[in-house]
């Protein structure tokens, strides 16, 4: 199977652009592998500290270089539903490693925060930078140089991208990502959204709202809508970093545990001590990154990944751009309808055929590179399967179904929900922005209306409560970028703008902040770059200016002359309240170092 010409062309463009940085990166991977291929580089004192708590037999094994040692990086905590299942994973992994003739140690833990808990709260301003903190925390765990491979236990929004950046930084080590899976289905997401709207309109109280939220988020596992967390799992599988069929199996089930054991054993099989050495830095290449972007478009995935994928690619010396992402969107059909792009949740998606069906359709239609390396071996075709529990408790696999179990949730490349992908780049005199089109009805994708310029989401909500927003407008919420306040997600706007749209008004959002995988039915031009604090044109828009957002043509303009726009002074806004509280003072340096959204919004150079 070969990729379509347009897919290959974009891949080649990325390859050419990345030639120098990729070569430097691969040289570093090779050098690291040569220096750290065994624990013989450690002094006796180093090694004694590294295995002090091991059993006598483990110490004997680790004192040589014949038995592989598996490092576990875990994001476990028992407050967050997605990460609580990881509590039992280290014991499972250690047992599986022992059965396979290896050893496993917990190398370190990383923080895992939940955007759902911090939405609209000061802590949300730490969220984006937690990705880079996670990468650094992982580096500390692996810096002990005790390991021949690593497994990464992470699920949610910034955790998986942070772990992926770190895994590629330690590119000489094989890496397998082990998910926890989604929680079982609760209150349907559209019903939850209705209660939120009723609460915003004052038609139900806090008790009714809390009851609805609790029925939706009700147990262990990821939230079931298709936000960043579940987009992460799709990406890890389609990029070959999961074992086949691992993404969407519910927690605390025999199959989930069997997949975890299998991943641990596979990680030991692909170390330098065996015949299938698969360092992740060589495994992930330009084709793998393009496959990830294709999967994002085909499923209508999270807008956050327009930043995360750029940062992940950069960690491997690959220079991905928004233009690449936008051009791939024009070439990739939308095959999945999962909330907020539809009414189904990820459990329904999995039941309809899931990742195996999706990957097969995209391979057969030439939208994916089949000739990639994965943790499972050569080629992506082995991922066109469903994982099942064998009678002996191990994992077995069967071909993905030929026909979708629900054509309203998962369709074919010949009959897509739309012929282009779910994300698009907008360009105009306001800069560059991202819009998620898959959840926006075609008739809502063009709006030309007066700007309402505000500097916080709370200001818009206050105006709504005061009855001041019953009209057409484009909300321009500025000074929400990485340097201004850490680029929080602005989900407090979702309900209000949705209500106004339902009342018949033409409304849209333009912001240098984020909305993420939960971007919904209201057109939202987000990640506007340059951000307001960098003097971007969004900072000079004034209330009453006419803004044009055309998601079909890819245009974002304010309808005044460039001379007038440039002549306007950049407003001075007091952002000092963002500098302290809930730990924000500790992140001031990260805000100052943050890169642009279209460069990954990272604090890491290059």
What's a concise summary of this model?
This protein is an alpha/beta fold and 606 residues long.
Provide tags for this entry.
606 residues, alpha/beta, Rossmann fold, Glucose Oxidase, domain 1, four-stranded parallel sheet, 23 helices, 16 strands, globular
Query: Regarding CATH, which class of the domain at 15-35 and 67-184 and 219-285 and 312-328?
Result: Alpha Beta
Q: Would you tell me which CATH topology of the domain at 15-35 and 67-184 and 219-285 and 312-328 applies?
A: Rossmann fold
Mean pLDDT, all residues: 94
Kindly, what is the distance between the CA atoms of the first and last residues, rounded to a whole number of angstroms?
Answer: 34 Å
Shape: globular
- The number of helices is 23
Rg to the nearest angstrom? 24 Å
Low-confidence stretches: none
Helix content: 25-40%
Sketch the major β-sheet.
8 strands, mixed
CATH architecture descriptor name of the domain at 15-35 and 67-184 and 219-285 and 312-328? 3-Layer(aba) Sandwich
Number of strands: 16
Q: In percent, how much strand structure appears in the residues?
A: 5-15%
User: Order of strands across the biggest sheet?
Assistant: 9-10-14-13-12-11-15-16
Structural class: alpha/beta
């Amino acid at each position: 199977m070969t990729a379509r010409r347009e897919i290959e062309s974009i891949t080649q463009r990325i390859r050419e652009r990345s030639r120098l940085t990729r070569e430097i990166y691969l040289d570093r991977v090779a050098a690291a592998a040569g220096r750290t291929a065994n624990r013989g580089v450690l002094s006796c004192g180093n090694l004694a500290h590294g295995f002090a708590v091991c059993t006598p037999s483990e110490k004997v094994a680790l004192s040589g270089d014949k038995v592989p040692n598996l490092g576990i990086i875990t994001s476990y905590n028992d407050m967050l539903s997605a990460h609580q299942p990881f509590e039992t994973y280290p014991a499972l992994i250690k047992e599986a490693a022992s059965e396979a003739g290896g050893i496993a140690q917990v190398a370190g833990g990383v923080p895992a925060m939940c955007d759902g808990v911090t939405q609209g709260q000061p802590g949300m301003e730490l969220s984006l930078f937690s990705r880079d903190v996670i990468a650094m925390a992982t580096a500390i765990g692996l810096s002990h140089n005790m390991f021949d491979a690593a497994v990464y236990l992470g699920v949610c929004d910034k955790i998986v991208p942070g772990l992926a950046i770190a895994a590629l930084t330690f590119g000489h080590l094989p890496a397998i990502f082990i998910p926890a899976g989604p929680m079982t289905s609760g209150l349907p997401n559209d019903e939850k959204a209705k209660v939120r709207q009723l609460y915003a309109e004052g038609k139900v109280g806090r008790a009714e709202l809390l009851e609805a939220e609790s029925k939706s988020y009700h147990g262990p596992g990821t939230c079931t809508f298709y936000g960043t967390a579940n987009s992460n799992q799709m990406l890890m599988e389609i990029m070959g970093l999961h074992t086949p069929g691992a993404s969407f199996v519910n927690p605390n089930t025999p199959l989930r545990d069997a997949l975890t054991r299998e991943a641990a054993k596979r990680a030991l099989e692909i170390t330098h001590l065996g015949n299938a050495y698969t360092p992740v830095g060589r495994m992930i290449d330009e084709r793998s990154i393009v496959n990830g972007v294709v999967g994002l478009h085909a499923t209508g995935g999270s807008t956050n990944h327009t930043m995360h994928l750029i940062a992940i690619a950069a960690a491997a010396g690959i220079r991905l751009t928004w233009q690449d992402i936008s051009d791939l969107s024009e070439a990739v059909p939308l095959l999945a309808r999962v909330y907020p792009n539809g009414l189904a949740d990820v459990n329904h998606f999995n039941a309809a055929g899931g990742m195996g069906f999706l990957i097969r359709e995209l391979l057969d239609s030439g939208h994916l590179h089949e000739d990639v390396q994965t943790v499972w071996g050569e080629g992506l075709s082995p991922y066109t399967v469903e994982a099942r529990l064998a009678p002996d408790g191990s994992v077995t696999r069967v071909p993905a179904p030929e026909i979708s179990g629900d054509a309203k949730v998962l369709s074919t490349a010949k009959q897509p929900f739309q012929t282009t992908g779910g994300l698009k780049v907008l360009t105009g005199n306001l800069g560059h922005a991202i819009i998620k089109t898959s959840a926006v009805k075609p008739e809502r994708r063009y709006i030309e209306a007066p700007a309402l310029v505000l500097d916080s989401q709370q200001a818009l909500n206050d105006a709504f409560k005061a009855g001041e927003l019953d009209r057409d407008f484009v909300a321009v919420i500025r000074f929400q970028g990485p340097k201004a306040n850490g680029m929080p997600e602005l989900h407090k706007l979702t309900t209000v703008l949705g209500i106004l749209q339902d009342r018949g008004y033409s409304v849209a959002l333009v912001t240098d902040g984020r909305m993420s995988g939960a971007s919904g039915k209201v057109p939202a031009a987000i990640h506007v770059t340059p951000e307001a604090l960098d003097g971007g044109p969004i900072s000079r828009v004034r209330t009453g200016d006419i803004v044009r957002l055309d998601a079909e043509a890819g245009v974002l303009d304010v309808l005044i002359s460039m001379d007038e726009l440039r002549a306007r002074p950049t407003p001075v806004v007091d952002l000092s309240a963002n500098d302290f509280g809930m730990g924000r003072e500790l992140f001031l340096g990260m805000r100052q170092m943050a890169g642009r959204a279209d460069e990954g919004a990272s604090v890491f150079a290059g």
